[in-house]
User: What shape does this take?
Amino acid sequence: MMIYLFMCSAWLLTLAVVCAWKYPLFKRTWQELYFADTPVLIESDDWGPGEELHAQRLLELLACLETHKDSVARSAVLTADIVLSVPDIEKIMADPAKAYHRKVLNEGSPGIYQAMLRSIKQGVLVPQLHGLEHLNGQGFAKLCQQHDSRIMTALALPQQWDWESLDSPLQGHYVDGSCLPTQAISSEQAQTLIALATQTFTELFGFASFSTVAPCYLWNSTIEQHWKNHGISVIQTAGYRCDARDKHGAYHQDRYLLRAGDLSESAQVYLVRNVMYEPVDGNNNAKTAYQEALRAYAQALPISISTHRYNYTRSEDEFVSSLQGLDQLLTAIGSSLSRLRFVSSPELGQQYLMDDTDIVNNFNGRQWMPLKRLSGLKKLAPFLRRLYYRHPKLVLLAYISGLILPVSLLCRYSR
Ligand SMILES: [Zn+2]
Assistant: This one.
């Protein structure tokens, strides 16, 4: 009996010391949003102009998503991060001034555009602005002018060329990567690009983009301010912000850690991708993605799946394998987790920004009830799990003090 009393006293004392020491961290974590209905997002970057084959692949991907339903019978929905245009290389080369020219999605790839419009109406695709293009126009035009070796394939076969074949530093949009380190575009250039991008997006899809994700995750506070000025209130991230690449091409982070629900300097809400399903890269697959989804669910966080276009637009074998894996992942999530809700990024962002508002798909007018949240003591287990997954030093202390035992029991018997 005495030994139990001693253990409890020691735990309570340790708890009191840790609470006093880490009070700001605990308070901040407790005040985060905890979901009772778990939002599931499928975020896919880079859809836009491309080979006609892409339209068929996109439709097959969406047909697969449509077979998966959530707790309110909504189909899985693809948040398609749209690249609105590609360079018009022949026009750039024919221009004596060698200015940048572009081919917009609906003109350059009408088949893909029409497939998107049908899918938007159907509700299985929600478009989100990725960028006016997936490169820096001025930097690209300069390389064309110089017949730079990095873009010789583009100059030789402009009709079949795809921007994904560019060197990675050349794929950034809000920085010029033609020379390293990259240079951020000026505020005036950003204003022009973002004004044209948001206007073009609205013209193509009938509604403004409320959310965005920067090409190559490269952007800064100036870009955020211009996004805000053009109605963008939600920023999809990978959990950090990069503003440049250094002289070796390495990414430079100016915000090391972003949590879902954090606010930018311009009061936009950040979302965070926490499940990687990019099987063509070979670093992850349906099994690893499922483990990441379980971890997000245990913390009452959104399950936000990142899966780029290239997983579905390359060889037939890669496409089939990627699609089967995604189907398996969604089946595993759907059969083992409860109260799931498929939503798009702008819809989830709106839920963070406003309490108790219906979910509205502004692109086809459909509505669903709001996502329910956890409150009071129901937050305790996911709160402890957030601390557990984020703060290894606290975990070590919990093991040394033995506090891990009561904390584990508490987590095991809740939710
Ligand atoms: Zn991209």
Notes: The chain has 17 helices and 17 strands.
